[in-house]
């Protein structure tokens, strides 16, 4: 299905590092790229570097005063709480501007490659820092690279951009930056704000003409319920909106092993979602697809396998889930983390779900979450919310 694919990578992307005790450990992307390389996934794509985002690039979505504050922190390593740097979530560190600007530059490089037609799909697994706000760092995120990429596309003349966020946490920063802009459809599927940071993402947050869409799922939701919710909301809206470009954020912290959240997806369920988004990119956006990473705090068993599957899916050559992980990669995992590595690319699950065509169960909390979203936004798009 894919024609040309670019993976944006620079070894310096691992310098986005909040310290050894922070859950967002850069080893997760190091192990991802090593696994993708050793399984031959990167042989099927073009891997290119990138330049840091400029101040003008960042100013597409961030206040210039905030960028200057981040630069001051970067030069000294001293906190600036007014900029959100120096908290337990977002520790200050020397070089934070350069590291953050490079991640934003990688997502910009992906956007440029897709918009220009150089490639059909592009991936930045180090990106997806969706919580950063216009004037403050938040939720482990300093610069909001998906929002920078979207704003750049709009500046080039794109009239409709869709953003689908499957991270377990609400994509609040991206939503906030485009909340009043009907050219950008943001869809976020996440754990309910009643039980998880950042406490936003309720169905009634509908933005301009229903272009902010939030599916708030109950804690404990697993593959079948999550995929049912995705199928009930995402395809109908993308088909109606018909974006010129699809941007997706693939935080894999919805996995049952993730230590910071409470959904129960498997690696196989996440892989199913990647395939669905690939099909939708071709069906609704002419194949123009920009994919980023995101959250994910089980550093060995989840993130590297999930995002290697993502790159493989984007390339058009998905991996057999039964594929063994290479022994050389297993040794690297032990050396870098002292943990036991996974032996195959699957959790051994075979996700299935029932769609809404046979109706919904008002006693089911997942169905209630689905219908709350459909009732809030489908009429604004001229779609019947009832199955």
Automatic annotation (TrEMBL):
CDD domains: HDAC_AcuC_like (cd09994)
Statement: the UniProt record of this protein carries the keyword Glycoprotein: no
Ranges for domain Histone deacetylase: 22-313
Pathway: Ketone degradation; acetoin degradation
Keywords, sorted A to Z: Acetoin catabolism
Presence of the UniProt keyword Electron transport in the record: no
InterPro entries in the cross-refs: AcuC (IPR003085), HDACs (IPR000286), His_deacetylse_dom (IPR023801), His_deacetylse_dom_sf (IPR037138), Ureohydrolase_dom_sf (IPR023696)
Protein family (similarity comment): Belongs to the histone deacetylase family.
PANTHER family the record matches: HISTONE DEACETYLASE HDAC1 (PTHR10625:SF10), HISTONE DEACETYLASE HDAC1-RELATED (PTHR10625)
Protein name: Acetoin utilization protein AcuC
Source organism per UniProt: Nonomuraea longicatena
């Amino acid at each position: 299905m894919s024609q040309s694919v670019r993976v944006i990578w620079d070894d310096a992307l691992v310098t986005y590092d909040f310290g050894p005790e922070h859950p967002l450990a850069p080893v997760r992307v190091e192990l991802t790229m090593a696994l993708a390389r050793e399984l031959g996934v990167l042989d099927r794509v073009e891997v290119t570097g990138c330049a840091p985002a400029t101040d003008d690039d960042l100013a597409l979505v961030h206040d210039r005063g905030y960028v200057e504050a981040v630069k001051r922190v970067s030069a000294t390593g001293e906190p600036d709480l007014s900029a959100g740097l120096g908290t337990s979530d977002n520790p200050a560190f020397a070089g934070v501007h350069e590291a953050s600007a490079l991640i934003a530059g990688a997502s910009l490089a992906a956007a440029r490659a897709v918009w220009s037609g150089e490639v059909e799909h592009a991936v930045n697994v180090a990106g997806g820092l969706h919580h950063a706000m216009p004037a403050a760092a938040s939720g482990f995120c300093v610069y909001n690279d998906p929002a920078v990429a979207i704003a750049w596309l709009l500046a080039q003349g794109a009239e409709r951009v869709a953003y689908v966020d499957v991270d377990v946490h609400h994509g609040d920063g991206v939503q906030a930056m485009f909340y009043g802009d009907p050219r950008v459809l943001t869809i976020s599927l996440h754990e309910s704000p009643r039980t998880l940071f950042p406490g936003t993402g309720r169905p009634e947050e509908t933005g301009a003409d229903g272009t902010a869409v939030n599916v708030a799922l109950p804690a404990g939701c697993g593959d079948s319920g999550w995929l049912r919710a995705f199928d009930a909301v995402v395809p109908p809206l993308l088909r109606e909106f018909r974006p010129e470009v699809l941007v997706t954020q693939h935080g894999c912290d919805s996995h049952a092993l993730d230590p910071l959240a409470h959904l129960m997806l498997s690696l196989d369920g996440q892989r199913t979602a990647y395939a669905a988004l690939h099909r939708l990119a071709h069906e609704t956006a002419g194949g123009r697809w920009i994919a980023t990473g995101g959250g994910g705090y089980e550093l060995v068993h989840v993130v590297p396998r999930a995002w290697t599957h993502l790159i493989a899916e984007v390339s058009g050559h998905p991996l057999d889930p039964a594929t063994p992980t290479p022994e050389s990669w297993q040794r690297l995992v032990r050396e870098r983390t002292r943990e036991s590595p996974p032996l195959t690319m699957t959790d051994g699950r075979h996700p299935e779900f029932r769609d809404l065509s046979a109706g919904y169960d008002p006693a089911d909390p997942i169905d209630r979450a689905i219908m709350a979203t459909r009732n809030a936004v489908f009429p604004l798009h001229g779609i019947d919310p009832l199955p």
